[in-house]
């Protein structure tokens, strides 16, 4: 269902305070184990329980809910690490730097908003953006661009998340991205798409390696995001697409590695 290992911890929902207690215990265990295992927890709950959580004041739980499936009555929580947060923030900084060149086009950051898809699944991205002024008739709940930050996760989970944004939005999400961080210092940023057979695939990819092998490049690939797909309007003279440069990727990687290898040092 969530493209996760069968060993993913699963608990019944017995109220917000019980949920918080269980989550905090699992988070402590995850951190003791070095944050290299499965970061997900599943709670079995109905729509009422999910609404109680969303309306509660427990910020740790609210920000940790990444999906809710109304069909199976299950909520997926992720134990976020500093690596997750830094990866999303570092990429967002590059987007902000680009959009600041266009003062006439305001882009709203909507990462705290969960979205319910047509299948009854709610999902919250790590970062998302949409124009302040939307086209007439467009569903306001969908961002134009969504980003998921991943820390050593299964490929199947990445594809499932991207399918939600691309297929679930019926094309209203124009750009679906992942930034994946791996244990040996490799960072991969991917732009995803769906073909006519509804197969999810990587359309563009940039990779940076912290310690490349001899005669191997440190950075490979490219990433370009069309202006029209971000702002949902035709590009005019002087307006440019977003192009992730090597120097920008180096800055993103430096932020992530500063956190990643500090965390590794603490564990050793």
Helix and strand topology:
Elements: E1 10-12, H1 16-32, E2 40-44, H2 47-54, H3 59-64, E3 65-69, E4 74-78, H4 82-99, E5 107-109, E6 115-116, E7 121-123, E8 127-131, E9 145-151, H5 155-166, E10 175-181, E11 186-194, E12 200-209, E13 219-222, E14 224-225, H6 227-231, E15 242-243, H7 246-267
Parallel strand pairs: 1-2, 9-10
Antiparallel strand pairs: 2-4, 3-4, 3-7, 5-8, 6-7, 8-9, 10-11, 11-12, 12-13, 14-15
Helix pairs in contact: 4-7
Model description:
The longest helix has 22 residues, at 246-267. Helix 4 (82-99) runs antiparallel to helix 7. It contains 7 helices and 15 strands. The strands form 3 sheets. A 7-stranded mixed beta sheet has the order 5-8-9-10-11-12-13. A 6-stranded mixed beta sheet has the order 1-2-4-3-7-6. Strands 14-15 form a two-stranded antiparallel sheet. The chain has helices spanning 16-32, 47-54, 59-64, 82-99, 155-166, 227-231, 246-267; strands spanning 10-12, 40-44, 65-69, 74-78, 107-109, 115-116, 121-123, 127-131, 145-151, 175-181, 186-194, 200-209, 219-222, 224-225, 242-243. It is globular. It has 2 domains: 10-78, no CATH class; 82-267, tt1808, chain A. It is of the alpha+beta class and 268 residues long.
């Amino acid at each position: 269902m969530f493209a996760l290992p069968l060993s993913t911890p699963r608990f019944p929902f017995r109220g917000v305070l019980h949920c918080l207690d269980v989550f905090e215990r699992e988070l402590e265990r995850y951190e003791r184990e070095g944050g290299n295992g499965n970061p997900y927890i599943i709670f079995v709950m109905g729509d009422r329980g999910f609404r109680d959580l969303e309306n509660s004041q427990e910020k740790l739980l609210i920000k940790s809910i990444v999906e809710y499936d109304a069909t199976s009555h299950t909520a997926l929580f992720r134990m976020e690490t500093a690596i997750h947060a830094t990866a999303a923030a570092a990429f967002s900084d590059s987007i902000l730097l680009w959009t600041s060149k266009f003062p006439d086009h305001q882009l709203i950051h909507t990462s705290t908003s969960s979205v319910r898809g047509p299948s009854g699944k709610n999902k919250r991205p790590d970062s998302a953006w949409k124009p302040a002024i939307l086209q007439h008739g467009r569903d306001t709940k969908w961002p134009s661009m969504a980003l998921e930050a991943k820390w050593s996760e299964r490929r199947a989970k990445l594809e499932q998340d991207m399918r939600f944004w691309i297929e679930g939005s019926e094309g209203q999400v124009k750009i679906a991205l992942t930034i994946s961080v791996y244990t040996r210092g490799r960072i991969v940023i991917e732009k995803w798409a769906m073909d006519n057979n509804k197969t999810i695939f990587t359309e563009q990819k940039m990779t940076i390696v912290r310690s490349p092998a001899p005669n191997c490049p440190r950075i490979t690939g490219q990433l370009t995001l069309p202006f029209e797909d971000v702002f949902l309007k035709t590009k005019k003279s002087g307006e440019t697409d977003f192009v992730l440069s090597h120097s920008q990727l180096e800055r993103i990687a430096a932020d992530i590695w500063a956190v990643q290898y500090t965390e590794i040092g603490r564990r050793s």
